[in-house]
Design brief:
Layout: H1 10-14, H2 19-23, E1 27-28, H3 45-74, H4 88-103, E2 113-120, E3 123-132, E4 136-138, E5 141-152, E6 162-171, E7 178-188, E8 191-200, E9 205-214, E10 217-226, H5 237-242, E11 251-258, E12 261-277, E13 280-290, E14 303-308, E15 315-322, E16 325-335
Amino acid sequence: MQGESDEKDLVEIFENGDRETLEKFKTENPVAEPSLKSATQEPTKEEKEIVKKEKAKEKKLKEKVTKKKIEKKEEKIINPQTLDDYPEQYIAIDEKSKEYWKSYRPMYLIGEEFKFEIGWSIFKAGTATIRTMPMATMGGKEVLHVNGLLESAEYFEGIYKLKDTLDVYVDIEKGGFSPLKYEMKQRESGQLVDDLQLFDHDKLKTYFFYHRLKDGKTKNKKIQEYLPRYFTDSFSALYFLRGLPMKIGSKFEFPIVTRGKVWILKAEVDNVEEVEVMNKKFQAYRITAQTQFPGVLKKSGDINFWFSTDESRMLLKFAAKIKIGAVKGELISHKKGEYKK
């Protein structure tokens, strides 16, 4: 079930298709510097050389970033919303959406980890893990990195085997929330899928690159479309929703962009309920969301999320009806993280 792209940034895999577009979305994840065995021990020659190379690399990166910033300032910036072919309905959508972005408060903790047991029909089908990773770098800027891993249970693999990974990167500068990159690698029974979605906030464009190998046949897609200014992708929407003010009766309506298409999510906090997970009882906001997504997740009923009412806003469980039945997830472990100021 392995593919060539399993350990690579999907930008590198699709780069031969559109190098100029993809270059600015390359991601650099942090690498820890070598540590000494004790605070007083003299570093070896090899350790000194490694540190020297890392510092040179860091200096080169800073120079590159500075050059890019200067070049960007010299560029004539055109507001895409003034172009003749920009969809007018997106301007109207932005007028409604911007209020939610104003009320959003950052809700991410570096190192936080949620692990859910996933049920499908009568089966315990597998687990889903969501991790807030150390800040990554894209275009010289620190960006939020959230990783998801969905794995089938061993005994369930006779029915369907999967190991899907999902990584999203979000610009959170000045307390904002602007998705930049979404990449999913699906490794499932009978198919391998690479799904890359990029979001250019200067040009208000999304670029979708898709590759699937199924039953020996290959399918490739490449799509370019306009974006509204305010939106989330289908995964980071959970983090955005988590940071919105909640009380019974609160309603939210904002766009989700997936595979070049814009969908409107409508959600309402309809109750506070007691939820028991990990042998503990929590007070939780129950949110009912209505939306549409393409493919297997195409809506055939409401999606419910339960977030704790305390300031942590932990996601405790979820339940949804999809084309292939009912899916539910329940939190079985949680690791606390640390807020990065």
